[in-house]
C-alpha cells in the first residue's frame, strides 16, 4: 500500500514475470485536482510491483480514522507498508491559493510577489507550525524530473503523428478525455502536445492564468499515457515550419473557442489550408475555468479543510 509519500506493497494470486507471484500495489488518497505530484507518486508506486490499484477517498480526507488512529496501522503491523519519495514544490493547497489570489507571481519568469509570499507563509497553516508537504513551496524544474515522466520514444514508421496545442492548465479529466479521443483517431498514434508559454496563455486567457506555470504543466501533460512528446513553449500559431519539423499528419483542437493570434489571424490557418485540421469533442464539460470557479465559491470551506488537514499531518 502506498499513501501519497508513504505506502505498502502486497502479494497477489496472479502470476508475475517469470512465473513468480505478482505484486499488487494499493494506493489511496483524496487526489483533489490531480497534479504531477500525484502522478509522480503513482509512477513510483507502480515501479514497486506489477499491478497498481488506486482508491479515491470520499469528500472527507482520512489521514486518521474517526477514533484518531493511523489509517495504515494494520498494514504496517502486517509488514506490507512501503514509502516512496514525495514530490516537493507542488500541493493542492498551493494551487488553490493561486486561484484565490489574482497574481501572476507563479509564472515561470516572475519573482514571487510580496502578496503571494505572505500567502505562502500563512495559507493552510495550522497553529502548531507548517507542514512542508501540504504548504506552499517554489517548484524547481530539473532535467531528471522530465526524464522520469517522458516516454523517450521517437515516431516510428507507420505511426500517425498528431499535434495538439494549448495551455493544458490544471490538467484535468476534460483534457484526458480530449486526448483519449485524439488517440483513437489512428491505429498507431504518436501525439505531440504543444504547450504555450505562460505569457502567451495570459494574453489570451487573462486574469492570473495560467494557474500552473510552463514547467509544471509540462510534467502534468507528460504524465498522460496518450502523450508521446511535449513541445515546451510551442508557438501559438501552428506554422508550416512546425508541421514540417515534426512531420505532422494531423492537427486537432477541442470544441473550445479558438482565440485569434495577435495579428487577428487564425492560429490554425495552415493546417486548415492543408486539410489536416480536425476539431474534436471530448464529451466532457469540465474546464479549467469551471474548476477555478468552484474554488472561489467554496473559499472558506477550502481554507478550513486545508488547516484541518495540515494539523493532522503534523
From TrEMBL:
Residues 1-20 are annotated as: Disordered. InterPro entries: Cyt_trans-like, Ect1/PCYT2, Rossmann-like_a/b/a_fold. The keyword Lipoprotein does not apply. Gene3D superfamilies: HUPs (3.40.50.620). It is an enzyme of class 2 (transferase). Pathway: Lipid metabolism; Phospholipid metabolism; phosphatidylethanolamine biosynthesis; phosphatidylethanolamine from ethanolamine: step 2/3. It holds the Pfam family CTP_transf_like. Its EC number is 2.7.7.14. Residues 26-60, 164-255 form the Cytidyltransferase-like domain. One of its GO terms (biological process) is phosphatidylethanolamine biosynthetic process. GO terms for molecular function: ethanolamine-phosphate cytidylyltransferase activity. Keywords: Lipid biosynthesis, Lipid metabolism, Nucleotidyltransferase, Phospholipid biosynthesis, Phospholipid metabolism, Transferase. Belongs to the cytidylyltransferase family. PANTHER family: ETHANOLAMINE-PHOSPHATE CYTIDYLYLTRANSFERASE. This is ethanolamine-phosphate cytidylyltransferase. It comes from Pan troglodytes.
Amino acid at each position: 500500500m502506498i499513501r501519497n509519500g508513504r505506502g505498502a506493497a502486497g502479494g497477489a494470486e496472479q502470476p508475475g514475470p517469470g512465473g513468480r507471484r505478482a505484486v499488487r500495489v494499493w494506493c489511496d488518497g483524496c487526489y483533489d485536482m490531480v497534479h504531477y505530484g500525484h502522478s509522480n507518486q503513482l509512477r513510483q508506486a507502480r515501479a514497486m510491483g506489477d499491478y497498481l490499484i488506486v482508491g479515491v477517498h470520499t469528500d472527507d480526507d482520512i489521514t486518521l480514522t474517526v477514533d484518531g488512529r493511523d489509517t495504515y496501522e494494520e498494514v504496517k503491523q502486517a509488514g506490507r507498508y512501503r514509502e516512496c519519495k514525495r514530490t516537493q514544490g507542488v500541493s493542492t493547497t498551493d494551487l488553490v491559493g493561486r486561484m484565490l489570489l489574482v497574481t501572476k507571481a507563479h509564472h515561470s519568469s516572475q519573482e514571487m510577489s510580496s502578496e503571494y509570499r505572505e500567502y505562502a507563509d500563512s495559507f493552510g497553516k495550522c497553529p502548531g507550525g507548517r507542514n512542508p508537504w501540504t504548504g506552499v513551496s517554489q517548484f524547481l524544474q530539473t532535467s531528471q524530473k522530465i526524464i522520469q515522466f517522458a516516454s523517450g520514444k521517437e515516431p516510428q514508421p507507420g505511426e500517425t503523428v498528431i499535434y495538439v496545442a494549448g495551455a493544458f492548465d490544471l490538467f484535468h479529466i476534460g483534457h484526458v478525455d480530449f486526448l483519449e479521443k485524439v488517440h483513437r483517431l489512428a491505429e498507431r498514434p504518436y501525439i505531440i502536445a504543444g504547450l504555450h508559454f505562460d505569457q502567451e496563455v495570459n494574453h489570451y486567457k487573462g486574469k492570473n492564468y495560467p494557474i500552473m506555470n510552463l514547467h509544471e504543466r509540462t510534467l502534468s501533460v507528460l504524465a498522460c499515457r496518450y502523450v508521446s512528446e511535449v513541445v515546451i513553449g510551442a508557438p501559438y500559431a501552428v506554422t508550416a515550419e512546425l508541421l514540417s519539423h515534426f512531420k505532422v499528419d494531423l492537427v486537432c483542437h477541442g470544441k473550445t473557442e479558438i482565440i485569434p493570434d495577435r495579428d487577428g489571424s487564425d492560429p490554425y490557418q495552415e493546417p486548415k489550408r492543408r486539410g489536416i485540421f480536425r476539431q474534436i469533442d471530448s464529451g466532457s464539460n469540465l474546464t479549467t475555468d469551471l474548476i477555478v470557479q468552484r474554488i472561489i465559491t467554496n473559499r472558506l470551506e477550502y481554507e478550513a479543510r486545508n488547516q484541518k488537514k495540515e494539523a493532522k499531518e503534523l
